[in-house]
Amino acid sequence: MPLKILIADDHDMVRETIVMFLDADGATVSCAASTLQEALQMIETDGPFDLVLLDYTMPGMNGLEGLKTAIKANGDKPVGLISGTATRVIAEQALALGAIGFLPKTLPAKSLVNAVRFMAAGETYAPVDFMSGKDDPEETDFEKDLSDREKQVLRGLLSAKSNKEIARDLDLQEVTIKLHVKTLCRKLDARNRTDAAMIARSAHFV
Description:
By secondary structure, the protein is an alpha/beta fold. About 50% of the residues lie in helices and about 10% in strands. Helix 8 crosses helix 11.
């Protein structure tokens, strides 16, 4: 009986490539989702899956909170994490929370597919080079879509500073800070500035 796998990633090419490689030999039947909410709905209607693989920064994830929600939703079946540039610390925390494994998107396609099947069989997977810190990126998935100025504003939010205080620190107009906060909330899928700070903290942004 083929393995039933759910790949949840908001990057179409990544998602479709994994599904194509996985289903090539008929050993798996893969479903795809592009947000955490979509993945949770599929788990509820079509699950549990033999493996759910979640992109760390897709919409709705809110750091590792999305992982915890998916683990609970998928019952006793494995849930893993995939990311382009998340840090080793995040990978370690994901495993500590009960993730079956962590896959860097830098893995060659064949290795990635083998790792997915390994996890679907109930075996924990984490690349040795990555977990040893040799492959640690300079920038995380969380940071890569933020401008330098947005990162500065976000650090102000993490310090619980007002827009006026952040504006003074950065020598900018308060209205400019308000615009940056609005953009940050949109990019981070945050309800407000407090939520944005919480998401940043969960992602270990400093």
